[in-house]
Amino acid sequence: MRNLLVVAASLGLYSQAVADPNPIDTHKEETIHIDQKIVRPRMPKLRDPGLIPPYSDDAKLGNVWVSAWVWLDIDERGTVQRVKFIKRPGYDLDQIAIDWALSREFTPAMNQFGHPTHSLVHFQMEWPSYYWLTSVKYSARRLPTGADMAGFSVEGDGAPGSDANTPAQGSLSQLPPCTHQAGWVFDSKRPHVTRDCSKPDLSHANAAEPWYAHKH
């Protein structure tokens, strides 16, 4: 459609510069038919969501909940070509985040004509508190789901520092609270865990941050 408009504009300028010996009757009605179907554009979609990047020793031993936000430059095949930090994770996770982001696979974005197209999207990577996660899932490979959380107790039943005779104090139906909303729990047997719920400030994304691409 864009090419059609450009061509039409060029022809219009040319017709003003050169007199047409057989002028077109502009009073006749004309219908332009476009064969392409207009559809809702679609953003790229991660092929395998829920996977957690590898942990660094600092992140694992610190039992901290960490997130990183990045820009992803994704081509029309759904391959990540470049990555750029909006919010760095720290805890010796920066290079892990770069390598992980470049290895992600997406279904490509689609334009208004249903054709695969290049896209630039912001993307979150998340490392839940390691020992909290392994007490819920006994694995640090995937983010916990609602099914994982069902029946998981706040005290007892798998809580670090508790034994099989410790009664459960209530089911944990939600993830740990966000850091800025949580208060310190002094009498809990479970290590105090809060989530990093921060969002990227796209209006102040650091222009000085470099792009990282695949190494050839």
Structure description:
It is a single chain. The strands form three sheets. A four-stranded antiparallel β-sheet has the order 7-2-3-8, covered by helices on one side. It has a two-stranded antiparallel ribbon with strand order 1-4. 18% of the residues are buried. The chain is elongated. The model is unreliable at 1-20 and 154-173 (pLDDT under 50). The protein has helices spanning 2-17, 57-62, 94-103, 130-137, 146-149; strands at residues 45-46, 66-74, 80-87, 106-107, 109-110, 116-117, 119-127, 212-213. The longest helix has 16 residues, at 2-17. It has five helices and eight strands, in the order αβαββαββββααβ. The chain has 216 residues and is of the alpha+beta class. Among the domains are: 46-127, 2-Layer Sandwich (TolA/TonB C-terminal domain), CATH 3.30.2420.10; 130-198, no CATH class.
